[in-house]
Amino acid sequence: MNSDTLQGISAPAPASVVPFRSSGSEWWRSAVIYQIYPRSFADGMGDDGLGDLIGITERMPALVELGVDAIWLSPFYTSPQKDAGYDVADYCDVDPIFGTLADFDALQARAHELGLKLIVDLVPNHSSDQHAWFQAALVSPAGSPERDRYMFSEGTGTDGELPPNNWESVFGGPAWSRLTNADGTAGQWYLHLFDPSQPDLNWQNPWVREKFRDILRFWLDRGVDGFRVDVAHGLIKAAGLPDYTPPADGGSMGGSGSLGLEPEIGAHAGTEPSTPPYWAQDGVHEIYRDWHSVLEEYEGDRVLCAEAWVEPLTTLARWVRPDEMHQAFNFSYLETPWSGPTMRAVINSSLTAFTGVGAPSTWVLSNHDVVRHASRLALTAENPQGHGIGPRSPGQPERALGLRRARAATTLMLALPGSAYVYQGEELGLPEVIDLPDDARQDPTWFRTNGERYGRDGCRVPLPWEADSPSYGFGDSGKSWLPQPADWAPYARDCQRGVVGSTLELYRALLAERAAADLGLGDIEWLTGYPDAVVAFRNGSVTVIANTGAAAVALPAGEIIVASEAFDTRLLPGDTSVWIRS
Ligand code: NOJ
């Protein structure tokens, strides 16, 4: 290391203590929650190359060994699987491809026996078109109570041949589809903000609200510790369903759009509203206050976590006011580029916004809808990547750089106070699978855009457990519903377990130290005097230094307890983070 590359200082001066501590001691305020995407975790039934509940139960000790506090299970409900289970045909049963309700009970019992909390997914914005409610609506006349459970409408144009408005589906194409009546004539239109197989429910209808209270109670009675709520910013649409044209590079789920996953708020022609009339409408909040009171009927600290692509963070904080939900995913954090100034800013805004309403901040870097952060953090501006990346995308990520940054970013994230989400496979350092064959892709986005958007399959490839087993130990059949890359053996869990420096052991060390030092319930004290590329703070007894830049930085005194990369001086290399006992 050349000394003129040093930009560090010997001892940072402490800045003011920022009291970000969230009020209360409920488990979810500081928990590390591991997301299981059931189809890709473990194929315990071993028959079809699709993960299932038995597989999760069998592999659960690995999560205890990892050191997480809770599991969030993506949907396992009865579903035609047009959107990988986010198209629910029965909210109170398990799809046979995943097992049975008895398998669910066994999974939950095992989780609780192992000291893990269990959160399940709730999908209230839309059902499957195969749900009995929608099937009843199809055979009922316009204006019937059955149709009023969904968003049906007459068309426009001279003969109703045009959709009711210009809204676009998140997955591409129009957000409305037209029915054909039994006699072959064209009928009403129905709204689907996602796939046509996912009709939007009408949340202005008290009947729908009552049914979802029942669904909450069904799972709460079974013993779940809470719900991750899908599209929690979309249930209520603006009165009159006004036209809205998203910006050309916009996309899906609501928010700033820097990942391209969601529409940006842009300039709009004529009378159109300036923000999407289907996201973040005020009416959603009374629904969450209602659900909050349902959860209060139960003992224990049950939790509601909002998947709401809403920005700015001060607006998102409205979802977690004291009588609404308890947590909301911090997608602003996920979308923040790997740079010192932007990371410091988003951490500050997050803690300020959530603390302002007495809620913990959450932190997340990957999930089943975004490019894995071990690839995303090495993308260049040339590649917006918001709708997935594939072999024909420009600016392919460099794998070693992506992993190095991902490890550094996770080391920073897990030191922050609040609750953190970890997506299955990130603890193995899995990259996005970019070169999936076109004919293997299954995301509706891929089909709805005729392959223009690659979609999310690349982050959903089944996990590698054992380097030398068929399908890397994913299941006995040796099959996997998305093809696993031929070069994944080094990522397999059994190749990393006990190996110093592996990503798995890094996660284990971080989670153990986080728990030991109670970082999830801590405060942030920013440390000043570092170069701009460095994020430096103290949380209790731990000093955290994350170097997002290229130049090495001198470290303060103290024992290095975890480092995202090995280095043998007191100089922290670029794209590296450390925890120091101070
Ligand atoms: C968000 C989910 O995370 C995503 O996977 C799904 O496609 C949409 N909501 C629609 O349910």
Task: Describe what this molecule looks like in 3D.
The protein has about 575 residues and is of the alpha/beta class. The protein folds into 3 domains: about 70 residues, Sandwich (Immunoglobulin-like), CATH 2.60.40; about 400 residues, Glycosidases (TIM Barrel, Alpha-Beta Barrel); about 60 residues, Alpha-Beta Complex (Oligo-1,6-glucosidase, domain 2), CATH 3.90.400. The chain is about 20% helix and about 15% strand. The protein has 14 helices and 21 strands. The protein has an 8-stranded parallel beta sheet with strand order 12-11-10-6-3-2-14-13. The chain has a 6-stranded antiparallel beta sheet with strand order 1-15-16-17-21-19. β15 and β16 form a beta hairpin. It is globular, with a radius of gyration of 24 Å. The structure holds 1-deoxynojirimycin. 1-deoxynojirimycin binds next to loops.
Give me the Rg, rounded.
24 Å
Which percent range fits the helix content? 10-25%
At CATH level 3, the topology of the largest domain is: TIM Barrel
Helix segment count? 14
The total domain count is 3
Class computed from helices, strands and strand pairing: alpha/beta
Kindly report the spatial arrangement of strands forming the biggest sheet: 12-11-10-6-3-2-14-13
Biggest sheet descriptor = 8 strands, parallel
Strand content: 15-25%
The level-1 CATH class of the largest domain: Alpha Beta
The CATH superfamily of the largest domain bears the name Glycosidases
Ions, cofactors and other ligands present here are:
1-deoxynojirimycin
The number of E-state strands comes to: 21
Averaged pLDDT, please? 92
The CATH architecture classification of the largest domain is Alpha-Beta Barrel
Approximate shape: globular
User: How far from one another are the termini?
Assistant: 26 Å
Low-confidence spans: 1-16, 254-267
